[in-house]
Structures are given as C-alpha cells and as structure tokens.
Amino acid sequence: MAFMRRPAEIDGPPVAELTRRIMQRVRGRDTSPELKVRRALHGHGLRFVLHDSRLPGRPDIVLPRWNTVIFVHGCFWHRHRDCRYATTPKTRTEFWKEKFERNVARDTANRRDLERMGWRVLEVWECDVKKRRFEEPLLALFKSLDG
Question: Please, which residues have CB within 8 angstroms of residue 41's CB and are 6 or more apart in sequence?
C-alpha cells in the first residue's frame, strides 16, 4: 500500500493513500440520509430551502413557513450519544477526539445562535434515517404547528 507523506508542520504518521481517498469522498451535503429526509418532507407537501448560508451552521433544510431548521447529522461525525455508529478510530485517537469535540461544540453554538434568532432547531440522526424512525415524529410536529 502506498503512503503519502504529511507536510512537515503536521504531526503524525504517514496517511495511507486509501485512507486519504476515502476521507476525500466524505460529503458535507446531499448525503444519502439527507436526501431521504428531503424526499419524505417533499412527498408530504412540505417545501424548504437547502443549505441557507445566511443562517449559523448552514442548516441542511430550512422550512421558513414553520421557522424551523433541520440538521441531518451523521452519527460518526457529530457523536450521536449511545449510537453504534459513533465509533472512534483506533489510530490517531487524540486527533479524532479533538476533532469530534470541535464538531460537537460547533453544533451546540449553531443551535444556540439559531434558537436566539427565533428558529426551531431539529436534528435528524443518520441511524434514525437508516431505521426509518424519523418521518413520523417530524410530520407530527409540522401537523401540530399547522393547527
């Protein structure tokens, strides 16, 4: 397996080329769970804006009519508590621990800022999408808001 050397200013062992390629393919938007949530909402007649950069954290889905934003979080990256997908890699554990802590802190700050602006913030987790446990609670919420 070919190894790629890190720049001198970055500490740590060389990164395997395969690992580098895998990490480059991780997407921040239009992920499979996000697309499933969008399809479900749209299928029930809900209309939304995607990735509104004017809002803190650039929420995945913005429903202006209900003053609601939805983040579709990957359990691994956003550390879903007690989830089997929220594992920590066995190599470079200190790096990953710090990275995950920054992600969670950023999520908390974005949620706080959005709520201060008057937005309702919902999180849908990757594992709930995989198990199809997300649709009913979301739709019940929007029906209750519609009156």
Answer: 48, 61, 63, 138
Q: Tell me how many degrees the CA angle 62-112-139 measures, rounded to the nearest 5.
A: 40
Question: Phi-psi bin for 45: left (phi > 0), alpha (psi -120 to 50), beta?
Answer: left
SS3 content of the chain, % helix, strand, coil (to 5): 45, 15, 40
State pLDDT tens for residues 121-141.
999 999 999 888 888 888 887
In the structure encoding, which two tokens stand for residue 139, read together? 């739709």
**Tokens 């500490």 identify what position?**
11
Query: Where are the domains positioned within the chain?
Result: 28-146
Point out which residues pair with 131 in neighbouring strands: none
69 bridge partner residues: 62, 121
Statement: residue 11 has pLDDT above 80:
no
Query: Helices in 7-131 by DSSP H: which ranges?
Result: 17-24, 32-43, 75-78, 93-116, 126-130
CATH topology of domain 28-146: Endonuclease; Chain A (3.40.960)
> Nearest Cα to 105, choosing from 115, 117, 97?
97
